[in-house]
Design brief:
Layout (H helix, E strand, L loop, with lengths): L1 H10 L12 E5 L2 E7 L9 E8 H4 L9 H22 L12 E2 L6 E2 L5 E3 L3 E8 L3 E2 L2 E2 L1 H19 L7 H23 L2 E6 L6 E3 L2 E4 L14 E5 L5 E8 L2 E5 L6 H9 L4 E2 L8 E3 L4 E3 L7 E4 L17 E3 L4 H14 L4 E5 L5 H4 L3 H6 L14 H8 L2 E5 L12 E6 L2 E4 L1 H6 L33 E3 L4 E4 L2 E4 L9 H17 L7 H15 L20 H10 L7
Parallel strand pairs: 15-22, 15-23, 18-21, 21-22
Antiparallel strand pairs: 1-2, 2-3, 3-7, 4-7, 5-16, 6-7, 8-9, 10-14, 10-17, 11-12, 13-14, 19-20, 23-24, 25-26, 26-27
Helix pairs in contact: 1-4, 3-4, 3-5
């Protein structure tokens, strides 16, 4: 502890790189400070530090984080506690560039496994970013002393010891997560694809906020015909709308809440914290949101179940395009999702290619079937479920043709759901929609040539929530809508770099490659993919294989055999 103070005083006003001398481990009262990485410039990526507390001294019972679900929830709570402590008690010391920055990767409404806090029988660790203070490019030692000796002990005391943590709130946070996991298991047993609890608050504060709307909210109430009840491990029960596997339509007038429901369902793949309003909005964990995506890269995808007989005899069993149309991009998105193992497609008609979704009878009389290369989704939806077990939940606002193939029809009426399945079925004749055999097959081999090194090696740089740069080739992730935070993009970048470093053959299927890595993460933790493991990165968050594959499939240098 005093060694760090002496070193800081010694380098005061020296060139910024003098900070490199503080790297190391220091013993403070009740915890260890480990400085793993020291930035070389006040404008560069901030320094990385760890706060390590012996579990026995922290006061936390190891039973609180004894299983993977408990550990995820426990670490999430402590991360949020540390973040709140920084917000309430830390006042930036200032300086040039990122001087005075002090942050922990906290996330938003979702409770996701991350590297910001880790817990074991031996230690509890918090990983933070620190902007070491400078005036220009000169060390401001006294400001650094304030961070490490004045503020840090208070922040640690407020966050990593039972004396200052609300233990009832912590236990509730963990139990809520366990309840959510329990319901997911029960949903699968009952063939339920999605669940929305009574009393849920689905609208968000704004289009750029994930926090719940506070005023003028209509709480969700299930129609009696769709209501199911789950008994929780605590002895309590939760009731709400259960959407069975199959084909479900969500209909209704404009601004009546259709998209609000679907938006909640697409993020129901994650568990949410207490107070979010969507605590018990739960969707099959492999559900994938599908949309058209004009201009995206497609590399050797078999879109023939939806698009075939293109002009000039272009092969759609190995379809490639650097600028896919709305219909070909949507077909590729569906096939890639199926290839990745989804059992549930989430679709909003408003973001789809119109000609991909359906064709009316009048149009068929003018443009004969033999002249139309697109087999619309309406003619494939039923077969996807009956032949391959792939359900669909879809917003339909303009085409009643889908009533022919629907198993359930839910109408949103002023934000209240109504089961109108029987009424919808009475309006259509017995289904005349084709249900032909759908052959789904994929043998997409990831080629190592996809990851050629540039002049400065192989560079991967995350750029927020919506973009990832690989050797200066940008991967657009804006329409991969189930990514919720930049830390997940950081993880995707690490996985791509890991593939570059560890997979040198041209024999492995792209899905199998990602599957193996995700299983390694579940077994050994997120750090297994980081080439900075000795620097203990604290800004990684778990991401599904579906989003990793979505990023790879949008990579413009991807090569598939």
């Amino acid at each position: 502890m005093e060694k760090l103070r002496k070193t800081l005083n010694k380098i005061d006003r020296k060139g910024y790189k003098a900070y490199k001398g503080i790297k190391g481990q220091y013993r403070f009262n009740g915890y260890d400070l480990l400085i793993d990485y020291v930035q070389g410039d006040p404008f560069a990526t901030p320094s990385r530090i760890r706060i390590r507390v012996e579990t026995g001294k922290s006061g936390f019972d190891p039973a609180l984080f004894s299983s993977r679900p408990r550990n995820i929830a426990f670490c999430d709570y402590l991360t949020r506690a540390f973040s709140k402590s920084i917000a309430h008690h830390y006042h930036s010391v200032g300086g040039s560039g990122k001087s005075g920055l002090l942050a922990i990767d906290c996330g938003y409404q979702e409770v996701i496994e991350r590297t910001s806090v880790t817990a074991s029988k031996e230690f509890i660790e918090a990983r933070l970013e620190v902007g070491l203070p400078a005036a220009g490019r000169r060390v401001l030692a006294q400001n650094a002393v304030k961070i490490f000796f004045d503020y840090m002990p208070k922040l640690v005391g407020q966050s990593l010891f039972t004396e200052s943590v609300d233990m009832n709130a912590l236990k509730h946070h963990i139990q809520l997560f366990l309840n959510q996991e329990h319901i997911r298991e029960e949903m699968e047993k009952r063939d339920i694809a999605a669940f929305v609890a009574d009393g849920s608050v689905l609208p968000r504060e704004s289009g750029i906020s994930s926090r719940p709307l506070k005023s003028g909210v209509v709480e969700f109430q299930s129609p009696d015909s769709l209501r199911v009840t789950f008994d929780l491990p605590t002895g309590e029960s939760v009731s709400g709308m259960g959407i069975k596997k199959g084909i479900t339509l969500i209909i209704g007038g404009g601004f009546h809440g259709k998209s609000t429901v679907l938006n909640a369902l697409e993020l129901g793949i994650y568990n949410h914290k207490a107070g979010d309003g969507r605590e018990y909005v739960l969707t099959a964990e492999n559900a994938v949101k599908i949309r058209a995506e004009d201009g995206r890269r497609v590399e050797k995808v078999n879109i023939s179940p939806f698009i075939d007989n293109l002009p000039m005899k272009k092969d759609t069993t190995r379809f490639s395009s650097g600028n896919a149309s709305g219909s070909t991009s949507q077909a590729a998105n569906i096939v890639e999702a199926i290839d990745a193992g989804t059992n549930l497609l989430l679709i909003d008609e408003d973001t789809c290619a119109t000609n991909f979704m359906s064709r009316d009878e009048i149009m068929k009389q003018i443009v004969k079937d033999e002249k139309e290369p697109i087999t619309p989704f309406i003619e494939r939806a039923k077969g996807l479920y009956t032949q391959h077990g792939i359900s669909t939940i879809m917003i339909v606002g303009s085409s009643g043709h889908y009533f022919n193939v629907a198993d359930t029809v839910i109408m949103m009426d002023e934000y209240e759901p109504r089961d109108v399945t029987d009424e919808a079925k009475r309006l259509v004749e017995e289904s005349s929609v084709p249900n032909s055999e759908i052959a789904l097959h994929s043998g997409r081999i990831l080629m190592q040539e996809s990851f050629k090194e540039g002049r400065k090696g192989f560079k991967v740089k995350p750029r927020g929530r919506d973009k990832l740069s690989v050797n200066k080739s940008d991967i657009e992730l804006t329409y991969v809508e189930q990514i919720v935070e930049p830390s997940q993009v950081n993880t995707i970048g690490m996985i791509i770099d890991y593939i570059h470093r560890h997979y040198s053959s041209n024999k492995k299927n792209i899905v199998d490659t990602v599957d193996t890595i995700i299983n390694n993460i579940k077994e050994d933790g997120l750090e297994v993919v980081s080439k900075y493991r000795n620097q203990h990165p604290g800004n990684l968050a778990f991401v599904r294989k579906h989003e990793v594959l979505a990023a790879l499939n949008r990579y413009r240098n991807l090569m598939i055999a």
